[in-house]
Amino acid sequence: MGTKRVGWARIRSLINENQNDLKLRRTSVKTAITAATTLVEADLGSLILLDASAASTNFEIVLPATPTLGDTFRFTLAASSHAASEILLDSGTDNKFEGYVVMYKADMADGTTAFHSHRKLGFGDAAAKGGCLEVVCINATVGNIRWAVVDAKSDVAWINSH
Fold first, then answer.
1. What pTM does this model have?
2. What φ, ψ does residue 9 adopt, rounded to 5°?
3. Domain-embedded: residue 17
4. SS3 of 43-95
5. Count of the separate structural domains present in the chain
6. pLDDT (tens digit per residue) in 106-156
7. Is 64 part of any domain?
8. Of 41, 42, 58, 72, which residue is 20 to 30 A from 137 by alpha carbon distance?
9. What are phi and psi of 150, to 5 degrees?
10. How far is residue 90 from each of residues 10, 36, 37, 76, 97, measured CA to CA in Å?
């Protein structure tokens, strides 16, 4: 077996590539949504901030119709919701959110879990700031898209439809 010589330029290039791979990747953040919105493919992988702090501001966020397997969204309440305001996330016709969600009481004790398999899933009236829902696409077949619930926490009961 022979040996192969590697020049300094190649060594520096390999070191730079490794440093680039190790850098923390920043998450894209979409500013607080306060009204009905349809997300697009460019929003995939983003942290989506939600704000239903105004009175009677029920609204829906529609997810993209053609995600790719492994695509993710993380939704977080940027402000506590008003007592008469709900936010529903809509996966689209014949699509579903599937997985367990958790509701905590104010003292963070006695977390209640519930399994959901619905087209729409969302934050109920008077949900506290910091409530979150993270989903990942586990089936990207159009007309049968499935979003697995990875993380879901709220201090009020989750709402659903279909």
1. 0.79
2. -65, -40
3. no
4. HCCCEEEECCCCCCCCEEEECCCCCCCCCEEEEEECCCCCCCCCEEEECCCCC
5. 1
6. 655 667 888 899 999 999 999 999 999 999 999 999 889 999 999 999 998
7. yes
8. 58
9. -95, -40
10. 50, 11, 10, 16, 9
Q: Which residues contact 60 (CB under 8 A, 6 or more apart)?
A: 36, 87, 88, 89, 90, 120, 122
AA letter at 131: G
pLDDT digits (tens, 9 = 90+) for 69-99: 999 999 999 999 999 999 999 999 999 999 9
**Furthest CA-CA distance within the chain:** 76
Q: Look up the domain containing 88 and give its range.
A: 26-161
43-54, pLDDT tens digit by residue?
998 999 999 999
Q: Which two tokens stand for residue 102?
A: 């958790």
